[in-house]
Amino acid sequence: MVKVSFDKYSKKRLRRELNTIIQIGYGIISTLDYDKVLQTISNGMADLLKIESSAIYILEDEQEIWLGATTPPLDPNMPEGLRRANLNDHPHIKLAILQQKPVVLEDSKNVELSDAEQMVVKLRKLRSIIYLPFIQTDKAIGLLILGTCKHTRKFNQHEVVLAQTVANQLAVAIQNARLHRDLISYKENLEQLVLERTYELEAANEELKSMNEELSLKNSLILKQKEELETTLQNLKTMQLKLIETEKMASLGVLTAGVAHEINNPLNFIMGAYIGLKNLILHEGNEHFKEASLLLTSMKQGIDRVVSIVRGLNQFSKDSRTNNEDCDVHAIIDNCLLMLQNQCRDRISVVKKYAEGNIVVKGNTGKLHQVFTNIILNSIQAIENQGEIIIKTEFDGKNVIVSVQDNGCGIESSILPRITEPFFTTKEVQKGTGLGLSITYKIVQEHNGSLAFESEVNVGTKVTVSLPISKIV
After folding, report:
1. What separation in angstroms does the CA of 102 have from each of 45, 48, 51, 158, 251?
2. Last residue of a domain, one of 177, 207, 225
3. Residue ranges of the alpha helices (H) in 383-468?
4. For the domain that residue 100 is a member of, what is the CATH number?
């Protein structure tokens, strides 16, 4: 066994570096906001090397780079145009990206710089500079610049290797945040497209009505054709909106699966830091071992929680074209509750009354996740303050009966028969599309099951799903 000894300075530096890396990890897993992730990385990397200035450039395409974050932070009123630059105007950035290796300048005054580089150096008063590319799957997605201000500093090999290693790991977090940002943008654009197309169809329909009313005075045949045309247009309108919604749900499923896959990489990185910190404390006999053990336990619980969420996302976004999978009903319900746990916490208690054994039905795992997520989410949203949701499973011979009962606001009896109609909703604008229960009803039918509702205003609602049993384990 090789024993490595550390002097007090080395131990202190190692602890500080580990703590800084852990803090960066906490920061990037606490949000998927693109700008916040970039700023967290910029601040954290500057702190890791104890350096005054930091900047992150993102490679937008083969020729353009975009200034994403700096330390100290950017002026929030800085025009977007000033944050973009041509890669060829910054040869040292280009060199680091092409070589996929760090580039170190010991003193900017002794190096030939381009006009654009001289402007940046003068503006931020940079002397010693290190360029660190963000590498993911053998491809540079951007670059981190760390620099001293007004004085020089010699970066040792440990600092350069440490910074580049951490930068490569953080590239995954940057890519995840960018993916999340693109997903939000895609969703917003798609919703706007739906509104525009709906407006166009309504405008065209109104114009057609006006024309047909005038023509109907002259010819009864035209009136009949008008009615047929209106029916056809309405059918086309409904079909188009359904197709758009289907495409949106499919895209969200693919992107969710991608996010779940990519989150695994920074999780491994954080777990590695956790194990390293734990071993360091155990080997060094830290006088604060008890307090550190509590922190390590909290870290491990957080990591386990994220791992469970990733598994849940993988199940929810599972893409299968058949309805012939073995689907564990209890496991699916538990998985849906896990993903909705943050909406229940501290105000809604969930009571599970499961029948004995694991109930298995033949169907599509991803679609059944969608069914129970929609039903449970509706129960959660129906409870304004404190409340309770009871989930019960039982048999009636050939079928499993799943009931979800809440003590929320309830539904008026006059509209209860309409709640599975497409686009019908009792929720506020932008809080519901009216497609959740419609899609749920269709999926249950595809599984040869049935869906029933009982509700009373100010008492609560009970939703019952019946599905044919395949086997009980």
Report:
1. 14, 16, 16, 13, 37
2. 177
3. 436-446
4. 3.30.450.40
The Cβ of residue 457 has, within 10 Å, a number of other Cβ atoms equal to: 11
Q: How many domains does the chain have?
A: 2
Q: Is residue 111 part of a domain?
A: yes
Give the model confidence (pLDDT) of 34-84 as tens digits: 788 888 888 888 888 888 999 999 888 888 988 888 888 878 787 777 788
Helix 157-216 to helix 8-29 angle (10° resolution) is 0
Expressed in percent and rounded to 5, the helix, strand and coil fractions of the chain are 55, 20, 25
Measuring CA to CA, which residue among 313, 312, 392, 382 is closest to residue 348? 382
Alpha-carbon distance of 146 to 159, in angstroms, equals: 11
Question: What's the domain range around 389?
Answer: 325-472
> What was the pLDDT predicted at 5?
44
Tokens read off for 357: 């054994």
CB atoms within 10 A of CB 344: 17
Q: Is residue 185 part of a domain?
A: no
Domain-located, residue 419:
yes
Q: Assess contact for 365 and 325: CB atoms under 8 A.
A: yes
Q: Which residue type sits at 146?
A: L
Long-range contacts of 188-192 (CB under 8 A, 24+ apart): 190/244, 190/247, 190/248, 190/251
Looking at residue 245, what is its pLDDT? Answer: 53
- Give CA–CA dist 212/226, Å, rounded: 6
Regions in the chain scoring below 70 on pLDDT: 1-9, 215-217, 223, 239-274, 276-277, 280-321, 423-424, 426-435, 473
The answer to whether 368 touches 406, Cβ cutoff 8 Å, is no
Quote the pTM value: 0.41
Q: Note the pLDDT tens digit of each residue in 191-227.
A: 787 888 888 888 888 888 877 777 666 777 776 777 8
41 occurs within a structural domain:
yes
Q: Which amino acid is located at 348 in the chain? A: I
Number of H helices and number of E strands within the chain? Answer: 11, 14
User: CA–CA distance from 35 to each of 44, 76, 159, 355 (Å)?
Assistant: 14, 11, 26, 48
pLDDT value of position 301: 65
Choose one of 136, 154, 177: the last residue of a domain. Answer: 177
CATH number, domain at 330?
Answer: 3.30.565.10
pLDDT of residue 369: 86
